[in-house]
Amino acid sequence: MAQEKDQNRRKYWQFFWRSWAIQDSWNYERAMNMGFLYGIAPTLDRIYKDPKDDALKKEAYQRHMLYYNCTPQTSAFVLGLTASMEEQYYEDQEGFNPDTINSVKTSLMGPLSGIGDSFFQGTVRVLAFGLGINLAQQGSILGPILAMVISFVPSFLVTYYGGKFGYNMGNKYLTKLYEGGLMDRVMYVCSIIGLMVIGAMIASMIGITTPIKFGKTFVLQDVLDSIMPQMLPFSLTMFMYWLLQKKVNTSITLLICIVGGLILSALGIFV
Fold first, then answer.
1. The domain boundary residue, chosen from 178, 202, 226
2. DSSP class of 51
């Protein structure tokens, strides 16, 4: 029991340290996917250590190369929960659907990012450095020290205990969900939440409008908004999705975006 407890503590520290490095390989295509894979890699290596499981290990590595973007401090919770789900899948490969793992990850990205960014970036950092700057202007050495301490302590607590809670919660409740036949419902709800997150990202992060109008009454953008708000961002996203489904090279897709955007902007069609 003591050995198992020590082993789990080592897992918690892995979630802690590796979640802090989750943005080191940030990219525009899939954001923090490589950082998340770095965080979950020790778990995958431990689970699939038998050479006969190499195919499953490669599948797991590919599974975690999909898009991921979340506040680093709250990512430890996702790492812990995902590690627990990976262990559950290895123990019950016939009854556990591995697609559930990415569905849960996607559904958690939005809520945890909203909470994490608002708390750490919008509240803790502002308070910490506001107080620190005020003391520093008075010539006190406590200014920068206090700013770093106030910033670090909440991050440390949320990161460490988030990873611990996520891992233990997964071990405790996933088995009950499967035994009760509730996992399909959970996956269904997670897929809906994931689609809601993607829809919100499209509406908030893709800013495309058209200035086209005829006379003083007909404004094309108003017409499009009356049919469906954010229709142009949605249409562009669906076009990019169609290109991906057709296996169009990523470089060509980026070239289409850049050149097409410049031409349409120069013609006054999009702004």
1. 202
2. G
